[in-house]
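Re: [ENG-882] Designed sequences occasionally contain unexpected residues at chain ends

Forwarding the minimal case from QA. Structure tokens:
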């Protein structure tokens, strides 16, 4: 596990909590998508999976209530998302956080807090290519419609 999550028991690799901060990216103003919105559900979901999308939504909602950041217990978060109750290095909740990092939707800050994107970028061509054909067509139509409207 990366150092994002504070270790509650370093010998067993168990983690207990993480401080979540907003990752504000000015390049996404006007083109980014709220993780709780339709674009995230229709298109990002197939790339990152349901647990990662739900985690991002939960964290963004928490950041609305606590703009300066907040500490979240991983056991409670895991249980709330239906990911069991474990917080060890290979537990579903820790793998979910790692998946958000892998896709550039979260990152570890120098102080070991977890920065979470408040806006998701549009899918890259590589990610769109991974979507099933009907979803790719829907994505193309979405992009075309929103370019005209914007």
């Amino acid at each position: 596990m990366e150092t994002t999550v504070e270790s509650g028991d370093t010998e067993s690799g168990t983690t207990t909590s993480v401080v979540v901060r907003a990752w504000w990216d000015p390049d996404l103003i006007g083109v980014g998508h709220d993780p709780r919105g339709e674009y995230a559900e229709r298109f990002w979901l197939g790339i990152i999976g349901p647990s990662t999308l739900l985690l991002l939504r939960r964290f963004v909602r928490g950041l609305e209530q606590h703009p300066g950041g907040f500490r979240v217990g991983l056991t409670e978060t895991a249980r709330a998302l239906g990911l069991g109750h474990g917080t060890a290095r290979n537990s579903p909740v820790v793998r979910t956080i790692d998946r958000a990092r892998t896709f550039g939707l979260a990152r570890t800050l120098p102080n070991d807090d977890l920065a979470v994107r408040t806006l998701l970028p549009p899918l890259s061509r590589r990610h769109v290519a991974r979507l099933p054909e009907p979803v790719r067509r829907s994505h193309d139509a979405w992009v075309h419609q929103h370019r005209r409207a914007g």
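QA comment: On inspection the terminal residues look reasonable. Helices lie at 38-48, 50-65, 74-80, 92-102, 125-130, 133-149. Proposing we downgrade this to a documentation issue.
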